[in-house]
Design goal:
The chain contains 25 helices and 22 strands. The protein has 797 residues and is α+β, with helices and mostly antiparallel strands.
Length: 797
């Protein structure tokens, strides 16, 4: 008996259930994809580190033999170091000219230029050995073996491709013979070449040093220095931040310029984009699911009202309330379960290309397989919620008396107030009828407001991202950098150029800047140095102020949170053998070092024995305009010639959209807008169809007394637009208020504690208009079925 009821329900509600099915598929795709990404990448790098014996901690520096021996002594005597190995790479600068760029260009964005540590292929130890995911069996004249991270971000070649590279003043053609996974080696830039070429480069390096010594270009002991890398495995369970901090502090105490890097910090850097996308997808899924649950309640309630006579007849025939309710619950549960299965399948279709795209951020390959945990969570959350809401929605069936139901229910004797009586309400008849519909449909009003409120938040956030991350990406650039410089200039020697550049009429501010690694309370940090931070004009200090005096510093927000300190507290800063207390005057944010950084004046860092190098100059031009940055570059090149080593025009690069994070932001904005349209279409389709079916007798009667189909369609549109407007406006206002907070929460993993990107009132207007226009078109299109309803077709004999 129950099977017949379920089949009958599906037959009668087929069009509604198809729409509901599509909504549930969308919610499943979003939730399962988000969970799969989070679960897939959460622990992926850590598991690969353990599986392939990648290093927990690495120390990379140019050292003298005695320093090398001292570091080995410190490492071997550290109770938290289980084992270690060392390598002696050749460090070379790789330059690859981008298509369409001049080979002698000084623009750093015209060249893929990066320093790499070259090692001989096959001559590695047990720690941090490359794990090859692609390896050619073909023999090449000049093979090169690169990591996923280096390949996807810089080289961008396939297995077997040839690449032209400039190293120093010589050109080489390499063939990509292998691609491997790694963690720390990805960010430190380790690649492998043939042992013969490695030996050749090693001899070349030694000969250059000998020649320089003969010409008195350097001190005698320079020949004793060599690049050395130590790879370490820590004792299981030992905190890597503590390990790196203790090692770096020990090196400083012995005046050794070497710093430890932990795999935990590298993993955070490699996974922040994946986690951000996963969080956004999960949030979308929750919004869609909430909308779906409200629609279910509305749909079931209306179905009971619409089929009240049939329900009475079923009860008279012997069906129990439990059986009738079960048939409805099973109808929604079964549809949802099929939607979950379909959504999970579609999710995996999306995940494969997504994983390839994310390799430029993750540095490793995620081998996608069926994720039982993500599937079960998705199934339980979505199917379970649908079942609970369906049970709650059908509760009133148990209280429905068969005799009352057979008499069309209590609605035939309704004593509800007659809102906006036609005979006394002034105005066009169609508008009055729409007003009556609005005032008498509380459930529909609530659903429309909630749906459009959610859409309003999403579309306003989309407009916010589109403007700040795509149209004018300089706002994103300045948010994720401590100083979002318009143009960076690098000179061959310290020169008195600041005053001369500052005199150019289109220049806003000029400053020099240096950076050095130090430790704060044992934690490795990157210190930014300049004379006077007030010269910079725009610096990403989100709380407090920049340091003014030689005893003051500003800490990165992530570091301050880790240390549990506040403005006005003092912390110990170490460099070399010197340590000194500094007063915290503010907190800064930067994605470059995951918030583990500080800013200090040149006088302040000199107390620790470091003499700043003033060869890097930063410039802000007026209005941050592209025209002014180009004029600056041209003038500086003509003024200083060969003394200018390189420059970086950030504004030009952002305008060209070359940054991968901008491309990701563009995709995210597009996806959010498409999802918003899809949710509006499916939600309104279900609501409008339900409303038309519920009111088909009323529509037939109105047609019989002279109303046209277009009038009735207009009435339906007008009865829904006020709620759509209210919901869209409320959601847009919430989006306007919360967008920066949402973005900061998503980026907190990389040290961004506060988002300060711009919001404009027009974003609210665009969001509301988007909701109104899309909704109007959809309602008008779907309500076309009113034309098929006639009074005669509703007559029963």
């Amino acid at each position: 008996m129950l099977t017949k009821l379920i089949k009958s329900n599906f037959k009668n509600d087929l069009s509604h259930m198809i729409t509901f099915f599509l909504i549930m598929v969308l919610a499943t795709v979003m939730l399962h994809t988000g969970l799969a990404i989070f679960h897939g990448y959460n622990g992926l790098h850590e598991s690969k580190k353990d599986k392939y014996n990648f290093a927990d901690v690495v120390v990379e520096s140019t050292l003298r033999p005695e320093d090398k021996a001292k570091i080995e002594e410190i490492i071997s005597n550290s109770e938290f170091i289980e084992s270690y190995e060392k390598q002696n790479p050749v460090v070379e600068s790789f330059e690859m000219t981008k298509a369409g760029s001049e080979e002698d260009s000084k623009n750093i964005y015209d060249l893929s230029s990066f320093n790499l540590s070259l090692l001989p292929y096959g001559e590695w130890g047990e720690i941090e050995a490359p794990h090859f995911v692609e390896l050619s069996e073909e023999e090449f004249d000049n093979p090169i073996y690169v990591s996923y991270y280096i390949n996807t971000n810089f080289i961008k070649a396939d297995l077997g491709d040839s690449i032209d590279v400039k190293m120093g003043d010589r050109y080489y053609t390499f063939q990509v013979a292998g691609i491997y996974e790694s963690l720390i080696s990805s960010e430190t830039g380790v690649i492998y070449i043939s042992p013969s070429l490695f030996n050749e480069l090693k001899i070349e390096e030694e000969n250059k040093l000998l020649e320089a010594q003969k010409n008195n270009d350097m001190q005698t002991d320079t020949l004793e220095y060599s690049r050395t890398t130590f790879y370490m495995k820590t004792v299981p369970g030992y905190d890597l931040q503590d390990a790196t901090g203790k090692l770096t502090k020990s090196f400083s105490e012995h005046e050794i310029l070497a710093f430890a890097i932990g795999a935990d910090l590298v993993i955070t850097d490699l996974t922040y984009m994946e986690n951000m996308i996963a969080a956004m997808l999960a949030a979308f899924a929750i919004i869609i699911t909430v909308i779906s649950m409200i629609i279910i309640y509305f749909r079931v309630s209306n179905s009971i009202e619409q089929n009240i006579v049939n329900i009475g007849a079923l009860k008279s025939l012997g069906y129990t309330s439990r059986q009738i309710r079960a048939s409805m619950v099973i109808e929604f549960a079964l549809t949802t379960f099929l939607a979950v299965i379909s959504g999970v399948v579609l999710s995996y279709v999306i995940l494969f290309p997504f994983e390839k795209m994310m390799r430029s951020f993750s540095g490793v390959q995620w081998v996608i397989s069926f994720d039982l945990v993500s599937f079960l969570i998705t199934c339980i959350l979505i199917v379970g919620t649908v079942i609970l809401v369906s049970i709650r929605s059908t509760k009133m069936i148990g209280k429905l008396d068969p005799v009352v139901a057979l008499r069309f229910g209590i609605n035939t004797h309704s004593f509800k107030k007659n809102h906006a009586p036609i005979e006394t309400t002034h105005g066009p008849l169609t508008w009055i009828m729409a007003l009556k519909s609005v005032l008498s449909n509380t459930k529909q009003n609530i659903i429309l407001i909630v749906v459009m409120l959610s859409i309003g938040i999403v579309t306003t956030f989309s407009a916010f991202l589109a403007y700040n991350c795509v149209y004018n990406s300089s706002y994103l650039y300045r948010m994720v950098n401590l100083i979002g410089t318009d143009v960076d200039l690098r000179f061959s020697e310290e020169m008195n150029v600041i005053d001369e550049i500052a005199e150019l009429p289109y220049v806003e501010s000029v400053w020099w800047m240096d950076a050095v690694s130090a430790t704060v309370e044992g934690y490795s940090v990157q210190a930014t140095i300049t004379d006077d931070f007030s010269d910079i004009g725009e610096i990403n200090v989100y709380e407090g102020r920049c340091p003014k005096y030689d005893n003051e510093i500003v800490l990165g927000g992530s570091l301050a949170k880790t240390l549990g300190v506040d403005i006005g507290d003092e912390v110990n800063v170490s460099y070399g053998q010197k340590e000194r207390k500094y007063l915290i005057t503010g907190f800064e944010q930067s994605g470059a070092n995951n918030g583990m950084d500080l800013s200090i004046t040149s006088e302040g860092i000199e107390h620790l024995g470091y003499k700043p190098v003033k060869t890097s100059i930063g410039v802000f031009v007026k209005n941050h305009s592209l025209e002014n940055t180009k004029r600056l570059v041209d003038d500086v090149q003509s003024m200083y010639g060969d003394k200018l080593i390189s420059y970086g025009n950030a504004i030009e690069t952002l305008k060209n959209g070359d940054e991968s994070i901008i491309a990701i932001a563009s995709i995210m904005v597009g996806v959010m807008v498409l999802i918003s349209i899809f949710v509006i279409v499916l939600s309104l389709n279900l609501l409008v169809k339900t409303t038309i079916i519920k009111k088909q007798q009323e529509i037939g009667i109105k047609k019989a007394i002279g109303f046209s189909s277009d009038q009735l369609r207009t009435e339906l549109v007008l009865s829904m637009l006020p709620q759509i407007f209210i919901g869209a406006l409320a959601g847009s206002l919430m989006g306007y208020k919360w967008s920066n907070a949402i973005l900061a929460a998503l980026l907190s993993a990389i040290g961004i504690m506060r988002s300060n990107m711009v919001m404009f009132p027009w974003m609210i207007v665009v969001s509301v208009l988007f909701g109104l226009i899309v909704s109007f078109v959809i309602i008008w299109f779907i309500s076309g079925r009113i034309r098929k309803i006639s009074a005669y077709s509703l007559i029963t004999e």
